[in-house]
Amino acid sequence: MEGDIVQMGAYIGAGLACMGMGGAAVGVGNVAGNFLAGALRNPSAAAGQTATLFIGIAFAEALGIFSFLVALLLMFAV
Amino acid sequence: MVAEAKGAEAGGLVFHPMDQFIVEPFFGDGAVSWYTITNSTVWMAIAVLAVFALLVMGTSKRAIVPTRMQSVAELAYGFIYKMVEDICGKEGVKYFPYIMTLFMFIVFSNFLGLLPMAFTPTSHIAVTAIMAFAVFFAVTILGFVKHGASFLELFWVSSAPLALRPILALIEVISYFVRPVSHSIRLAGNMMAGHAVIKVFAGFAAIAAIAPLSVVAITAMYGLEVLVSFIQAYVFTILTCVYLKDALHPHH
């Protein structure tokens, strides 16, 4: 293990891939925040849009999950 | 992948946070073959039995004034039925049993996995990938059977300017094939991450000075996990409905 530069690179890369989660966090926060802003303006229309809210959150989250996938691949597959 | 995680090699922790995800034989120990009864299969079976108990035994009396079991079963049924009808329309209702099955299995696997010493089958990509790829292939085949070659219009966004359409088509094709990957890893990743975080906080409980803080943190994370367990099952189901809608109505 010692002096294994490929392993070191993989671990550093896995750590860097975690930064993608920050992007997903911003995205999910944007979706939820804008939903809340809209819902407070027109509360009667909010209940019908919760499904759209969750679809939006899921799509925003998907890209964060890809960074998690990259980290997993670097840790266990490369 | 977690085989090497087992053992107390990690510094301050007595156990490794990923130890809980190791698939091992339920009776005795030895090699895991395809027919071995593992902790994963046992908890999947328990989830199926729990779904059976709720939906079949709970509603067997068909009381006008429902018992608690029956009203929970009716609530779950009505919740998913309305979701399928809202998103897929009337034609989608034909596929309601499949979506209901997926939802009940996932929600029970997630909730039962929260019990102490339990195993969460949905924390493994192998389990969720089977469900996600089944949805992917079912939906793709259904689209081609229902619409033939015109199913490909799904990728041709006719509301966009003509110059943009080839680029959009490329993006749409990529996002279509990425669907099963994100669909499966979303569920497995959320389950795995939540359980690992709880175990990490549990590891801090060994240090006396911060043990009370750790207990509070575990309690808070546990509450969050109950929420996440339900929401992830809901998201998996709702995305299945959205993909089904794309297959039933591919025209933009």
From TrEMBL, chain A:
F(1)F(0) ATP synthase produces ATP from ADP in the presence of a proton or sodium gradient. F-type ATPases consist of two structural domains, F(1) containing the extramembraneous catalytic core and F(0) containing the membrane proton channel, linked together by a central stalk and a peripheral stalk. During catalysis, ATP synthesis in the catalytic domain of F(1) is coupled via a rotary mechanism of the central stalk subunits to proton translocation. It comes from the Bacteria. Its main location: membrane. Belongs to the ATPase C chain family. It is a multi-pass membrane protein. The chain crosses the membrane at residues 12-33, 53-77. The lineage of its organism: Bacteria, Pseudomonadati, Pseudomonadota, Alphaproteobacteria, Rhodobacterales. Residues 12-74 form the V-ATPase proteolipid subunit C-like domain. It comes from Sulfitobacter sabulilitoris. GO terms for molecular function: lipid binding; proton-transporting ATP synthase activity, rotational mechanism. It is found in: Cell membrane; Membrane. Pfam families: ATP-synt_C. HAMAP family: ATP_synth_c_bact (MF_01396). Keywords: ATP synthesis, Cell membrane, CF(0), Hydrogen ion transport, Ion transport, Lipid-binding, Membrane, Transmembrane, Transmembrane helix, Transport. The gene is atpE. The record marks 61 as: Reversibly protonated during proton transport. GO terms for cellular component: plasma membrane; proton-transporting ATP synthase complex; proton-transporting two-sector ATPase complex, proton-transporting domain. This is ATP synthase subunit c.
